[in-house]
């Protein structure tokens, strides 16, 4: 695949700067609280909570913050958040999925719609672009945990659907039904992954020119910086030159 896929690279732009850590911790805490509230507060029995805690640890979120977010779910006076998925098209007709947790649906919808409009795109109905993505589980490990063959063998034995190994590490994909069992089996063999989550994986990616790519990256940043937005997925890829220019 030529160039840089948004799916693999651009998502990592979020939260890299120290100035954004506080906002990122807030989003991670919100996901932990919602996950604990919707299921059991035991991460061993609640795969969504387990995934949220792993994500928090990867960002070096203090243990006290994680425990506080779980306890918040057990209280009766905690905020209630709605889970909403927004779908639309960005510049160049690129498909974009936005997952949000919000305590104000009207505010979130208005803000996210304005981001799409200002970028030259438009927000659509739920289902308008998600058919171009697969809902799938991903388990990621650093390159150092094992060689490609060992990871592939372990993934096949665990029941995974696909494995992609490269310089950045190992990515193991599993269906939504088998994801939890695959993650458990791999963790027993290789230890805690650097990521384990359900994601929207584009079925195909679209290469865009640098001008369109720059507009798309600005839209991604606007969305990711919004307090209610938890995850953003899109199906475009950009050139190495634009990655270098944008500091990606």
TrEMBL record:
Region (Disordered) residue spans: 1-21
InterPro entries hit by this protein: Integrase-like_N, TACO1_YebC-like_2nd/3rd_dom, TACO1_YebC_N, Transcrip_reg_TACO1-like, Transcrip_reg_TACO1-like_dom3, YebC-like
Keywords: Cytoplasm, DNA-binding, Transcription, Transcription regulation
Gene3D superfamilies to which the protein is assigned, alphabetical: 1.10.10.200, 3.30.70.980
Domain TACO1/YebC-like second and third intervals: 81-236
Keyword Acetylation among UniProt keywords: no
GO biological process: regulation of DNA-templated transcription
GO molecular function terms listed in the Swiss-Prot or TrEMBL record: DNA binding
The keyword DNA-binding is annotated on this UniProt entry: yes
Principal location class: cytoplasm
Domain TACO1/YebC-like N-terminal: residue ranges: 5-75
Subcellular location: Cytoplasm
Superkingdom field: Bacteria
Record GO cellular component, one term: cytosol
Recorded family membership: Belongs to the TACO1 family.
Protein known as: Probable transcriptional regulatory protein FXB38_40255
The species this protein was found in: Bradyrhizobium cytisi
Lineage of origin: Bacteria, Pseudomonadati, Pseudomonadota, Alphaproteobacteria, Hyphomicrobiales
């Amino acid at each position: 695949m030529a160039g840089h896929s948004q799916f693999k690279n651009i998502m990592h732009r979020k939260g890299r700067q120290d100035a954004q850590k506080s906002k990122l911790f807030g989003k991670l805490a919100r996901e932990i609280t919602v996950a604990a509230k919707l299921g059991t507060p035991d991460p061993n029995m609640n795969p969504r909570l387990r995934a949220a805690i792993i994500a928090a640890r990867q960002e070096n979120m203090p243990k006290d913050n994680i425990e506080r977010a779980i306890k918040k779910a057990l209280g009766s006076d905690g905020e209630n958040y709605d889970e909403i998925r927004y779908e639309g098209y960005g510049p160049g007709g690129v498909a974009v999925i936005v997952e949000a947790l919000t305590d104000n649906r009207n505010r979130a919808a208005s803000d996210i719609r304005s981001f799409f409009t200002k970028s030259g795109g438009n927000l659509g109905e739920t289902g308008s672009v998600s058919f171009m993505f697969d809902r799938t589980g991903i388990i990621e490990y650093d390159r150092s945990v094992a060689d490609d063959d060992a990871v592939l063998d372990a993934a096949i034995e665990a029941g995974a659907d696909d494995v992609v190994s490269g310089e950045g590490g190992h990515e193991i994909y599993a269906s939504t039904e088998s994801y939890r069992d695959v993650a458990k089996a791999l963790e027993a063999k290789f230890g805690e992954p650097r990521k384990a989550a359900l994601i929207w994986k584009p079925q195909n990616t679209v290469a865009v020119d640098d001008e369109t790519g720059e507009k798309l990256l600005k839209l991604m940043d606007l969305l990711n910086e919004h307090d209610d937005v938890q995850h953003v997925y899109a199906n475009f890829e950009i050139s190495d030159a634009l990655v270098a220019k944008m500091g990606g």
